[in-house]
Amino acid sequence: MGEAPNRRRSNEARDALLSLAFAHEDAAEAASLTMAHRLGHAMDGRSAANLLVLSAGVEGDIGSVRLWTFPRDDAFKFDAGARPTIELLANVFSRTSGLRKAAQFDGESHDSSFIGGHALDFQTGSNSFDIADYWIGRFLDCRLGVTPVAGTQLVARAMKKLDATLTNPADRQTLTLAAVALRHSPRTNWTLNDVAQSFLPEGLREQLIASSDKPEMNDAPFSLSHDLFDGMVATRVFSLVSGVVVASPLSEVGDADEPTKPVVITGDQLHCEGTIAKERLRGRGGTPAA
What we know:
Blueprint: E1 2-3, E2 9-10, H1 12-22, H2 25-43, E3 50-59, E4 62-79, E5 85-93, E6 101-107, E7 118-121, H3 129-132, H4 134-139, H5 148-165, H6 169-184, E8 189-190, H7 192-199, H8 202-210, E9 222-223, H9 226-233, E10 235-239, E11 245-249, E12 253-254, E13 263-266, E14 269-272
């Protein structure tokens, strides 16, 4: 969002949407034209003509705006009369095309409203991401956001994929500390790029970003799901050459700088010390012994 000199949030698309929801008829009509012009400029001639449909209203103190686009399509009209005819229809728009898009914004009439919304765009995440982004980025002037589950999975999978490729124990320890720091950070919103920039040195930073299985989402903000993150990367497992396997919570793994941790990694050596709370026999693969 841009900032005006009086610090009021100023964004052409957001201002138009607020006008659609709350302004009088003339201002709402002008806002409709603004959004139509924005769509025309955002498409940049790379897509066929679209029908833009806007709907707005207020219920109580809450205003709502719905936006849809439907791409032009070719259609035939068949008349099975005494003399059957087929007519090619012009200006027909598809309700079921994968290129259709939608968006929804709800909120009260004040400066902190309509900051976020929901969007439907079947092209987002495709190989032609720049073309698909015209709806969310260039038209709505928004930044793609993802759910806590999708965002947390994106980061956790990237960390696990990177960890599987690392051979330097120091790099693995750095990645472990990054995961612990992310898990306990008071910050609420992240992107994968933010995680890399905040917790990793340059070399590992670039490797984590490259490990993303959905690079088009690397800059999408999300709220970290701590339970899901714990379930995916909360434990670090060490397999020693002797066949011994040591599993430890990430927060309990230290190095030369944290020698008081129960598990300490020094180079390729592991040192573990603590009081046994429980023990049991297990078969191969972790199956409890009968």
